[in-house]
Design brief:
The protein is mainly alpha-helical. About 80% of the residues lie in helices and about 0% in strands. It has a single domain (about 5-310), classed as Na+/H+ antiporter like fold (Up-down Bundle). The longest helix has 25 residues, at about 135-155.
Length: about 300
């Protein structure tokens, strides 16, 4: 085996190890952000959250070609149904849950979770659980487009008082989410390096996820009163899981999993970006806790699904 092949194999093993131990790494990143908040807060003041989010979204886009997305025509009816219902119901769930917390910043963070797209990690978790990863990826892309276009108007309808205009939010999401996603997918489609870029991009994607969680967690000011915030986020997550279960009824198990996980798991990273843009950086704080809850839920769900199907 020559030198480049050995390096590629090493990078592949590192990427797999990071993904295998994602949950404990997520907890560690959150603990570091809470315990040593000053560096993260200084970075947050320079819009580091948005820059890290753009890197993460690019890496996500680079995992799928345009053909992969186009192959979802066979599941288009289910995808449209899930997308339509979740776009209406999830913001409503977030609005209800936000009434459990006090203060406009914390409420804004909970509301931002309601307009976030599907969690990036849900695609990989769907595959691990034996679900249709292509459908999960389609929901990721479609929900991202919906978020870019409708996050501002939905937040306005929910009565949120944004620090920026709807047009400003749209422009920022287009720059930070839509363009990196398209650029990543274009890179994967053109494949100039013959796939050799995939292992390093997987590593960069996982590291950027952990860095973003650290940045968001650094905004947390934990107190006994935060129990209500955790309760609000748990309520929102439970409502999303219930909705995903309902939307997945009447379909084969593999497709049911591909509906359940992406519906229940919303992207804390994009939600943190929305919260920071719309309500100020402190509003991103609840999304650190939400990110941990979502990944714990996804990991446990995969374990239960595999046990039930085995």
């Amino acid at each position: 085996m020559d030198g480049p092949s050995r390096r590629l194999l090493l990078l592949t093993r590192i990427a797999a190890a990071l993904e295998q131990f994602l949950l404990p790494l997520v907890v560690l990143a959150a603990v570091l952000g809470i315990a040593f908040p000053s560096p993260g807060r200084r970075l947050d003041g320079a819009n580091a959250i948005l820059a890290t989010l753009a890197v993460l979204v690019f890496c996500t886009g680079a995992s799928m070609t345009f053909s992969d997305i186009g192959s979802l025509r066979t599941a288009s009816r289910r995808l449209v149904l899930v997308l339509t219902v979740s776009t209406v119901a999830l913001p409503a769930f977030a609005w209800l849950a936000s009434h459990l917390v006090s203060g406009p910043a914390l409420r804004g963070g909970v509301l931002a979770a309601g307009v976030a797209p599907t969690e990036v990690a849900s695609v990989a978790l769907t595959g691990l659980a034996g679900g249709e990863a292509a459908l999960a990826a389609g929901l990721l892309v479609a929900s991202t487009v919906v978020t870019v276009l409708l996050a501002g108007p939905i937040l306005s309808l929910l009565g949120a008082h944004s620090m920026t205009s709807q047009l400003g939010l749209l422009a920022t999401l287009a720059l930070v989410v839509a363009l990196p996603l398209l650029a990543g997918s274009a890179t994967r489609t053109l494949d100039p390096l013959g796939g050799r870029e995939q292992p390093p991009l997987r590593i960069i994607g996982t590291v950027s996820l952990l860095v973003l969680l650290w940045e968001v967690a650094s905004e947390l000011h934990l107190a006994a009163s935060d129990a209500r915030m955790v309760a609000a986020l748990l309520l929102y997550l439970a409502c999303g899981a219930g909705l995903g279960w309902l939307l997945g009824t009447g379909v084969p198990p593999a497709r049911r999993t591909a509906v359940l996980l992406p519906t229940a798991m919303r992207d804390f990273a994009v939600a943190a970006g929305i919260a920071a843009i719309a309500f100020g950086v402190p509003a991103a704080a609840p999304l650190g806790i939400y990110g941990i809850l979502v990944l714990v839920f996804g990991t446990v769900a995969v374990y239960l699904i595999r046990r039930l199907s085995g």
